[in-house]
Amino acid sequence: METTQRNTEHISDLFEKMGGAVTDGFPAIHSPVSHTEAGTPYLRAPGVVMLARPQTNVAGLAGFLEGFDPDLNFPEYVNDPTPLPDSSQLCKTAGQLCYASFGPRRTTNENAAAYIGRLTSAGHGSVLEHANFSFLLYGISRSVTHELVRHRAGVGFSQISQRYVSGSVLRFVERPEYTEDAELHRLFEERADRAAAEYEEMAGRLLEYQEGGNTMLSADYKTDARKKVQQTARSLLPNETEAPMVFTGNVRALRHIVEMRADAHAESEIRNLAVRLFLCLREADHILFGDYVLDTLPDGTHTVATEHRKA
Ligand SMILES: Cc1cc2nc3c(=O)[nH]c(=O)nc-3n(C[C@H](O)[C@H](O)[C@H](O)COP(=O)(O)OP(=O)(O)OC[C@H]3O[C@@H](n4cnc5c(N)ncnc54)[C@H](O)[C@@H]3O)c2cc1C
Fold first, then answer.
1. Pocket lining: 150 vs ligand 1, CB cutoff 6 Å
2. Residue identifier of the C-alpha nearest atom 14 of ligand 1
3. Distance, CA of 46 to CA of 29 (rounded, Å)
4. Which residues sit opposite 156 in a β-bridge?
5. How far, in Å, is the centroid of ligand 1 from the Cα of 189?
6. Which tens digits make up the pLDDT trace of 122-139?
7. Which residues pair with 27 in a beta bridge?
8. Which domain-ending residue is among 238, 258, 281?
């Protein structure tokens, strides 16, 4: 119990240390923007903003529960005095429907953590698929998002299109390994400036080529014409280019992603993202994400793990 308490405090401390804040029930860890001397914008850490979380209407069950034998006392289910995060409540109610566990002998909300623990330890994770969370993710590089989109089950992605946006929104992401060393940092800034300048130069040259009548670049509509220039010019952008997205996952998928990507063996940039995602999820629901233990590696970075992997 003491260890659990310490771990919970440790997790909340890290959320705050990373600049995390909860506004109207929505946790976020923002990431500041820096600029090179030439003015090229870049970020050094992922920004994670929870955009959507479940809202559960337990009272709505009343009309259904009242339709059973009054001796079963089902309607009292909606009067449980212990409030739960809506996401936990949704998953617990879904699980309890399976066995019509609405009567007085059911697991009450007071013991929701043990109930969810039984599901995750037994691998009965399908009820966790009801609760979805959506995030804005920014300050993440193209190489990180390439790894994240390998997760297919239970997730949705909407990512910035380098075909549709111009160089005016180009930003870069500095790897944590570069930030402490002056020379590596200088080289990163030099590369970011160079990539931004080369992109502008290439887009300009392609535009001239297009206006000169090149058939591969020509298009009937202005948007299509711009897209053809941008889809070609983007080929020179490095993996360090920022690639923000809106990302949605159900709790079963999110748990799996945290387990795979906040693991010590995961690549350090995606691990940093997964740890921040976890911290926001844990702030939002201390029950569905209550079995995870946060650890600090000798290099000062963090990992998250649970004994109930892959619910
Ligand atoms: C440390 C690390 C190193 C990696 N290295 C490489 C690498 O070198 N090269 C590389 O290509 N990838 C690599 N990957 C990516 C990895 O192989 C997976 O593609 C990625 O982690 C997605 O996870 P997932 O397969 O569990 O899929 P998810 O989409 O997250 O699916 C969750 C679970 O649903 C089930 N599932 C999903 N889709 C299917 C399906 N079509 N059929 C049956 N079951 C399904 C599986 O049980 C799966 O585990 C690496 C990942 C990690 C974490």
1. yes
2. 147
3. 8
4. 248
5. 33
6. 999 999 999 999 999 999
7. 22
8. 238
- Probe residue for ligand 1, chosen from 126, 150, 277 as the CB with the greatest number of ligand atoms within 8 Å: 150
Domain identity same for 155 and 275: yes
How many structural domains is the chain composed of? 3
Position 5 pLDDT exceeds 60: yes
Residues 138 and 119 in one domain: no
Are residues 166 and 230 in contact, defined by beta-carbon separation less than 8 angstroms? yes
Q: How many Å lie between the centroid of ligand 1 and the Cα of residue 235?
A: 27
Containing domain of residue 147, as a range? 2-54+131-160+243-305
CA geometry: angle at 79 spanning 74 and 81, to 5°?
135
Question: Is residue 230 included in any domain, yes or no?
Answer: yes
Domain membership flag for residue 85: yes
171 within domain boundaries: no
The pairing of strands 21-23 and 155-159 is: unpaired
Q: Which residues are catalytic?
A: 261
Kindly give the number of the ligand 1 atom that is closest to the alpha carbon of 267: 1
HSE-CB for 27 with a 13 A CA cutoff = 20
Between CA 266 and CA 253 the distance in angstroms is: 17
Report which protein residue has its CA nearest ligand 1's atom 8.
Answer: 147
Q: 184-242: per-residue pLDDT in tens? A: 999 999 999 999 999 999 999 998 888 888 888 888 877 788 888 888 889 999 999 99
> What separation in Å is there between the alpha carbon of 225 and the centre of ligand 1?
37
264 in contact with ligand 1, CB cutoff 6 A:
no
* pLDDT at residue 9 greater than cutoff 80: no
- Tell whether ligand 1 has an atom less than 6 A from the beta carbon of residue 105: no
Partnered with residue 159 across adjacent β-strands are 245
Work out which ligand 1 atom sits closest to the CA atom of 261: 53
Q: At what angle do helices 2-17 and 268-284 cross, to 10 degrees?
A: 110
* Cα radius of gyration (the chain): 24
The pTM (predicted TM-score) of the whole model is: 0.95
Pick the closest to residue 102 from 127, 56, 68 (CA basis).
68
